[in-house]
Amino acid sequence: MLPRMDSFVIHGGRKLSGSIAVSGAKNSALPILAVSLMTDAPCSFGNVPLLRDIQTQVKILNTLGVETTWQGRTVRARVKDTYNSTAPYELVKQMRAGVCVLGPLLARRGEAVVSMPGGCVIGERPIDLHLRGLEALGAVIELDHGYIKARTPAGGLRGAEIYLGGKFGSSVLATANVLCAAVLAKGATVIECAACEPEVVDLAECLNAMGAKITGAGSPRIRVQGVRRLKGVDWSVIPDRIEAATFLIAGAITNSAITVTGCRGDHLMAVLDVLRQMGIKVERKGTTLTTVPSGRPKACEVVTLPHPAFPTDAQAQMMALMTIAEGTSTITERVFPERFMAAAEMKRMGARISVANGQAVVQGVDKLSGAEVMASDLRASAALVIAGLAAEGETRISRVYHIDRGYERIEERLRKLGARIQRIAGSDAAPATASGTAG
Ligand code: EPZ
Q1: Ligand 1 pocket member 406 (CB < 6 A)
Q2: Which positions are annotated as active-site residues?
Q3: Do the bridges between strand 161-163 and strand 140-144 make them parallel or antiparallel, or are there none, so unpaired?
Q4: Which strand (E) or helix (H) includes residue 423?
Q5: Nearest 5°: CA angle at 107, between 106 and 109?
Q6: Model confidence pLDDT, tens digit, residues 336-388
Q7: CA 118: distance to chain centroid?
Q8: What integer best gives the mean pLDDT of the chain?
Q9: How many Cα atoms sit within 13 Å of 36 on the Cβ side?
Q10: For the whole model, what pTM was predicted?
Q11: Before 198, cis peptide (omega within 30)?
Q12: Closest ligand 1 atom, CA of 123?
């Protein structure tokens, strides 16, 4: 069923208070759910966020013969049959991360037919690194009528030394796909220029719990010793660091004391460092992070890069904070150079932002004013919510189905912190090909 064209109405300019718990990480759960394809044994995945993208991934797995049941935030999964190894366009077009079934399918079944992911509003998103890595393991791949058709040679995949670096450095999902394939390949594999994101580490640790032999995850060089088969697993995914960053920035922009619970501060070092540079105090105790009202933020220069540097997925939210900072900030987007969809909408709220050549220059203003704005992708819409919380007057954000892809019931949880935010149900259905399938 297509999502509705709901919108949010926010009355901003209020302080927030209280605590908010972080959900499980969407970008960890998506590739981890796909490992259920790599064993005949039952798997159980806990702390899975209740998001539309997760539902789409589960539907993709169901079409591939994986039986799934939900119990709260736990997904139980088990391969029931292997007749179909095609992940259809109908589903993959809704969520690019559907491509991360490619490696697990190929590794376990020796063949995979996966729709090529479509376009994306956050920028150019090729899959050459995915294909390069799998071909290095011996896969025979052709692109045919919009589908990636891959099969293993006689004798199966073979371990190899693979350089997985691209124009913008490492790739998270390419690393995930190649890692899964290498786990069941014969012999040893080295993945050089692997992505170091915490979500990649979570995937590797989950695979190791299934009997894989992976070392070096979290570093640019991952080593894998292939194994013949994997057992089932009972795994709980890590907390969502981007959701945590979003809430911390909501606390900072409203000059509020809010506590974000259940998060991993060690996954947020770059974000915490930028907040510190902007004069925003954040107290860290165990798995909680609390913003301390620190007055008007100072301007700052941020460059997004692969982990452990500043995450591109927190860029738009940080830009919202910079709009009311003292002085002129810059954001240089080195992962998705065109990812500045929120800028034009924030300018409608009185922000002063100029974007050119992958960089946004943000001249801080005293205050933002509420306005009608439109969400274009997941993180841009989170940034507009944050701007709306700070803005004077009413902000109306349309197309919030984008935000439902990555944030669970965000308006209800923000209301618990004292925000005045309402969801207005849309009568129309969202466009079938949710452009901005940034996932
Ligand atoms: C993951 O996407 C995340 N999605 C994205 O989060 C995140 O923005 C991105 O990593 C970067 O951190 C999930 O994990 C589901 P990439 P992914 O491949 O793996 C280029 C969100 O908001 N590239 O690491 O698809 C690519 O164009 C989403 O939750 C190639 O050149 O991103 C980009 O410039 C949005 N060739 C850079 O690498 C390839 O084959 C990084 O992209 C693959 C990627």
Answers
A1: yes
A2: 120
A3: unpaired
A4: strand 420-424
A5: 65
A6: 999 999 999 999 999 999 999 999 999 999 999 999 999 999 999 999 999 99
A7: 17
A8: 95
A9: 28
A10: 0.97
A11: no
A12: 27
